[in-house]
User: Which sequence fits this backbone?
């Protein structure tokens, strides 16, 4: 189990800007991940601004929960709980859920749910698939470029900058905005991946 405080900026960008950034900076890694999202029929977690998902990679998996924290800056802040899973554990869990079983989480996330949402009946309600590209950006700040595909065929591109230093995030974002000629979408208009996956489910 890991517990991390996340401070990050998220910006939806055009395919052209995505391609320009990807080809400008040194690539550290690139991979695909599948994201499966959970809530109950009353959207209880959504109302609490909590997101819960299982992620599948080529050779491993994880279950993660993002819990909002009081804002200390203009950027999104949350505590992320992560429990490692084997690929077979995750695939077996998803298969059971997709055939009608309840989504009963174990690990630190299961403990959190039992403590805060003891009667919640979770279900798998949507998913997405993301090609993630990690780049060494300005001031050696890591950039994450995501190309995400949704169940109805819609796809989009997103720039994420995650760092412990809010001032560094701001400086890097401003430089990218200047160098690649784009403006950050106002926060109220920028939907999270889980919100976009919900909007584009089938």
Assistant:
């Amino acid at each position: 189990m890991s517990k991390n405080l996340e401070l990050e900026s998220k910006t939806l960008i055009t395919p052209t800007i995505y391609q320009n950034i990807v080809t400008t900076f040194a690539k550290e890694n690139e991979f695909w991940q599948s994201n499966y999202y959970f809530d109950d029929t009353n959207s209880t977690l959504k109302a609490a601004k909590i997101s819960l998902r299982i992620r599948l990679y080529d050779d491993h998996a994880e279950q993660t929960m993002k819990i909002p924290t009081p804002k200390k800056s203009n950027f999104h802040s949350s505590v992320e709980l992560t429990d490692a899973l084997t690929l077979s554990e995750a695939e077996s869990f998803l298969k059971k859920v997709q055939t009608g079983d309840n989504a009963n989480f174990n690990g630190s996330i299961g403990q959190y749910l039992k403590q805060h949402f003891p009667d919640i009946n979770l279900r798998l309600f949507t998913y997405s698939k993301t090609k993630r590209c990690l780049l060494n950006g300005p001031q050696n700040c890591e950039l994450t470029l995501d190309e995400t595909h949704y169940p109805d065929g819609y796809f989009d591109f997103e720039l994420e900058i995650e760092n412990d230093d809010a001032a560094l995030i701001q400086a890097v974002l401003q430089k990218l905005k200047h160098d690649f000629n784009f403006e950050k979408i106002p926060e109220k208009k920028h939907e999270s991946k889980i919100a976009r996956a919900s909007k584009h489910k089938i």
Observations:
- Residues 2-199 form a domain with the Hypothetical Protein Pfu-838710-001 fold (CATH 2.40.320.10).
